[in-house]
TrEMBL record:
The keyword Repeat applies. Coiled coil: none annotated. The keyword Repeat applies. This is Uncharacterized protein. InterPro entries: TPR-like_helical_dom_sf, TPR_rpt, Ycf3/AcsC/BcsC/TPR_MFPF. Gene3D superfamilies: Tetratricopeptide repeat domain. It comes from the Bacteria. Keywords: Repeat, Signal, TPR repeat. Residues 1-21 form the signal peptide.
Amino acid sequence: MQYKPYAILLCSIAINSSCWATNTSHDLNGPSHSATQQVPATTLRSIQHDIRNWKLQPAGEKLQQALTQYPQSAQLALLQGKFCYLSEPRQFAAAINALNRAEELGLKDPELYFYRASAKSQPTEPYLMRKQPDYRGAVADFRRAAQLNSERDLRFNIVQALFEAGEYAQALDAANAFLKHKPSIALIADMRMLKGNILAELERHEEALVSYKKAKRQYGYLDKLYYFQAVSLLALNKLQQALEIVDTGIEKGRHHLRELHYIRGVILYQQAKYHAAFDEFSQAWQYQTKWALPLLGCYNSLIQAEQKLDPTRFLDQALALDPMVVIHFHQQDLLKL
């Protein structure tokens, strides 16, 4: 895309923002002060319009020019954070850096905290746990945005960040409060599905299945919902039901086929159907060839099946992708693959 050079340049400016002053914390909604700069309103509106309408190339050009003239502008730092968050390739660290800069310059804006929370909560290779997102920081920022009367309904975002942070008791309380008190109609099914995940993490799988069933009334077409149901059925050792649910999910599947084939492999392995399990792990790996877990599943299946085919190549390939794959295989959280 043509706007990529601007994204890379502007986001590198955000990363190397130590050249900017950071000695202010005044709210720009109050009186102005010398540490910040007033950018013409027409310039800000023009950049904001372009970003809102995904016209990122002209937005990048205007931002670059404006930042050269007004490097001390908190509003421009906010727009730069949005730009880095939305541009391809996504630059989450640079977005956080720019939004930190806006806050240091005194801006107290719900959009600042929303975008910073969103950037902090971006998952990267969750099962490897190598670049763990800052979910607790995201919770704090989402709550700060809500306190500043954000126009967005952030209750779902808060519950989701609590869930990802492993704060399951808090997440469950917040989910129940949402569903009980004036829930947003558009988010009810999403919250019920998320509540199911929370209950599953708390090993309350029967209750999780009830919540998934309620979500299914609206989201019966979502393949990931069938995957989540299969995780709880597997935990309850209801293997045949889990397999039937997975098969339905695969029939409807579009976005989560790798997870569905992976868990189908896990179920078949538990049923001692090792040849079929190998096929499913192989299929899962085809969807993401840098994913080590299904390769280890292939290895384990071949070992159990006592095939003449040498299984060590699957182990070697898995270890090359993830030297800790054996530990990760046994510690995997199926809800967060």
